[in-house]
Amino acid sequence: MASLKSDDIDCEDTQTYPNIIKQLKLQEYYPKKLTREKALAVSNIDISTDDLKDPGKIPWFILQNMIMCNYEGMRFEVNEHKPLLSGTGDSLPLLESHSDRENDCDHTEHVSPLDSLVALFWCCDDFLRQILVERLLLCQLAIPLLLPIDSPYGSEMLMWALSTLRKQWKTRSGSSCEQSMVFHKSSIVSAIRFGRPRISKSKILNKVISDLKHDIFFHSDCNGGANRKIADGLLEMAYYLPNGKRKDMLSEAVTFMNLRGNASYLKGQIRFISEISFATIVFMSSESLKEEDKALLKPLYEQDGHLIIVLDEHSKGKLKDSFCALEKSCLKVSDKQVKYIYSSTKKELLISKKIKECLKSIYKGSRRYVVPDRSIKMCVDVAKTMCFEVDDDNTQDYLITRKTTEMMIDSLKQHGKEKQLPLQMIAKENGERQKTQYYLERDEHNAATKDSENVLDTSISFLRMKQKIVCEEDLGILKLFSRSYTFTAPARKYCQSYLKILTYNNNIDEMQSVRQEYINKLDKLHRHLQKHQKSRTKLEKIKARKAEIECLESELSNLSLGLEHFNRELGQMYEMKSDLNLLDYSTRQLPVAAAELFLDGYPLELMNGDAIYVPLTWIEAILRQKIIDDNRIFVLSVLGVQNSGKSTMLNTMFGLQLPVNAGRCTKGIFAQLVPVDTNLQKSTGCDYIMVVDTEGLRAPELAGLEHSDYFNKLATLAIGLSDATIFNIRRELVIEIKETLENTVLAFMKIESVKIKPRVIFVHQNIKNVGRANMNTDQKISVKNMLDEITKRAADKENCGDKYETFSDVIEFNENKDVMYVSRFQKADSSMAPVDPGYSRSIYQVKKQLIQCLQNSQAKSVKDFMRKLSDLSKAIP
Hints:
Shape: globular
Helix content: 40-55%
Strand order of the largest sheet: 12-11-10-7-9-8-3-4-13
Oligomer: single chain
Number of helices: 33
Number of strands: 21
């Protein structure tokens, strides 16, 4: 790959920029200076396609849409005639790619969406790249694996950026399979082209991978598809995922790779592909085969992997002899399949069908496993032999933390969670005593209270001493994790993120089998309840099934391991040392580092769901740090029953990275800070939206299980802390949160001392016709009547019916504004289906409503929030 040419770049203040960066006005962010915090900042400015006449708006248009999972953000075309930026007649590619495009002589400034995306990846930092890659996968758009860059080796492998990718698909047995795609081994099918074939390679690949009418790989017929300038040498990937049905093309997940540009000039990428591919699809133009092309094809014939060669119909005579000669001289592997397909521009569907048939034949053949399946992680060594750069190897801050993080996980695998993270186990006992302590404080007039408090204080001190003794033992993990808090701010971020990645993969197979059993038993309970709604004779059977589900919930909780468990352990150590007056300088620095991480978007645990415990001392130590304490916040809480799509909604709305699969949900309440854009800050006085996320509430059919009171406390605390609360509801089933709301209203009536009146917004998910639902005033009135009814019932219990007559007397609610509808998440019931753009648009309307709430309310100080958290956690029964 050739290096940068003089007319590809401009100089500005001694800084050299590729022309595409100047064209898109991204100089401020090049290279890798666009942060997650900048990109996710909440703004009331909406960029539309009409704004794209200004090329500087294009990257922000793509980011805005991709973060909200709207693939339409990659389908635009800009054809403004403008003077060239510099040089000799073309805003040339960053790399000398020997372009064979038809429009190289067209003196019009075109901006290709694919070029814009490549430029955006050049500018995004490692953490924003991860979010962008996750969104591309959800949108079923191709993901960059080898990114063309300005370096002597011309390519960067995006290992770190891809490390958070996860996908689910169905196996032939019908069960779900969930995997981290970077670590999951699969076969690799690659596609390349020589010259300029008459048919579109990318368009054919789209038809091969999926029967859905969706463009995974960008091609010339897409809006803005022509005039690509910098993407040659880009190696993209996409996944074929089965649905567990007989009509599936293949019964296993397959990684498809697509090389952009003419392979004649991409020798390094071809060598990489020949090393890793189980099968390679080669698209040939009608030109005669050049000697240099033969040299590149030679390793593809010599490798173990299979070959499918797609020839232009007009080139049969010209190329047949050349390929026969290559096959004769290079084909040394027995049973290697080499298949030829003759193409025509009028028969694209037929060509894709023939490629599918070839792939089926190859996968059923005796040489299926001659080329071993590879994970993306395993391809790194191959990339290094080609001298490609690897993104995580180029990041010193990541390299510093990698060894520390891997040592922690290795220790956990050896000794288990309970032995390696013991302080939080003791915290469970402390949680029970804290609950009793707060109860006694509320009952201060009772004569026996003082004696009970003394006994309780002694018991709590004993538990803290127990934690101290444990800390003095050789707790390798706690020491390693504490040390990570002394790293530089960027290194701490890498440590937290890498730990999250590794903990996700811990016990993944065991978790999966238990989760599948949990889903199956829950489904059986649903069906049984529907069938025997009025049958008392079946009560024992229902009770037994609920008990089985509770056991599985407990097993999932024990198997679960996440970043929160490590941060929780650190918080417990801090609280123990604080209570025993043992705080030293290094321990005092822990909340300082935690505050910086919190500002960077990492979650802060407000309530430990395993111990039903609010670590007030640790939280207060973090929030009183000056970098946080000076900010003003708007608190948004989100509640919903398990699997209602709550986390998916938050991820789409704010660009968060919450786990979304059943059985992976985190127990308790967590807060994350989302920055507010500078312009919106000025008009609202608010610096951050604090998103308070809770674990999924239990569905009504699971009422009566142990800890049901806990979910009522969780909901009351989350709503009480908020300025606005979203209740996320499956379809129009308001009934599923009726009991929770009634208990919350009752709790608010009991704790009048804590002055709160949050706003509630009901978001109905998975609605077929959103427009019609919005017009359904009867449904909205029905919701209001139900809320008023539960308020009257609660008021009667508390003998305050004269004070509270409607739901709005307790919690702010307007049925005309605060009942919203969201369409289904995916376009089809398929592992290959993208997020429905209608879903993204619906979520955007909810976000606009929240911004309006923010503009109409007064932002609170962090001190106010801390005071409210303390008061509520002590007051809620």
